[in-house]
Amino acid sequence: MPRAGDHHADRRREIIRANLSAVRERVAAAALRAGRSPYDVRIVVVTKDVEVESVRAALELGVLDVGENRVKEGVAKRAALSTDFPAVRWHMIGHLQTNKARKAALEFDLVHSVDGPRVAEALSRAVEEGGRVGPLGVLLQVNVSGEGTKFGVGPGEAEALLREVNRHPGIEVRGLMTIAPLAADAEETRPVFRRLALLARQMRELGLEGVSMDILSMGMSQDYEVAISEGSNLVRIGTAVFGPRGG
Ligand SMILES: *Cc1c(COP(=O)(O)O)cnc(C)c1O
Q: Cα(47) to centroid of ligand 1, in Å?
């Protein structure tokens, strides 16, 4: 617990509270503008590089979904917080190396970053070996923009990956994830989100057994309103809640 009279911690909590309520309002407004229910859009609060007491502050404000991009950091925070906040869902949103897959499969509730058959196989094996209640939900990461710096399969390879991943027991493909390029104007990202939504629809129409394809993880601090208007139902927000990382 923070010390009484710890003004820095109090101020930090107050900033998080104000930021989070602004994000919630903007997410709800964007959903309504798109003719959807605000409840249709889940906010995953991204806590990478954020100290545990600030994560705790967000959880005390009712945050139920937390995203981390490194297994070790996510596992440590979960260990520190899950007793007090057992209902929180932990999301693995960063690139996953196969040697970290085992830990990720047991400690996270949804893995957003399946980008190839090997990581899917490693996750599946970990679930099959036991220690996890129920299947692991995964999203396929698609590199829509084709930027060399981004992980993910190209849109044209996504169906093949889906069929491949779907053969593995213990994991369930729940949808798609993408990261849009940095853009001076968020509007520029719209074609990326539109493409991912179309791809998800096409994959849903394949009607593959065990594939729900109901999660569209797209939109970050700078572009989540555009993503929601293109059908996102899961936005991953860090900076808009906690401020700039390392700042
Ligand atoms: C860091 C990160 C986010 C959050 O980015 P912000 O711009 O801080 O909101 C979302 N998704 C992924 C995959 C990330 O690595």
A: 9
Could you give the number of structural domains in the chain? Answer: 1
Q: Mean pLDDT by 10-residue block, N- to C-terminus, for the chain (247 residues)?
A: 72 97 98 97 98 97 98 98 98 97 96 97 95 93 92 97 97 97 95 98 95 96 98 98 85
SS3 category, 32: helix
Three-state SS at 95: coil
Structural domain of residue 145, as residue ranges?
4-246
Assess whether the C-beta atom of 150 lies below 6 angstroms from ligand 1.
no
Which numbered atom of ligand 1 lies nearest the CA of 112? Answer: 13
36: CATH: 3.20.20.10
Report the nearest-CA residue for atom 7 of ligand 1. Answer: 221
pTM tops 0.90:
yes
Q: How many CA atoms lie within 13 A of 46 on its CB side?
A: 24
In the DSSP assignment, the letter for residue 39 is G
Counting from 1 in the atom list of ligand 1, the atom nearest the Cα of 222 is 7
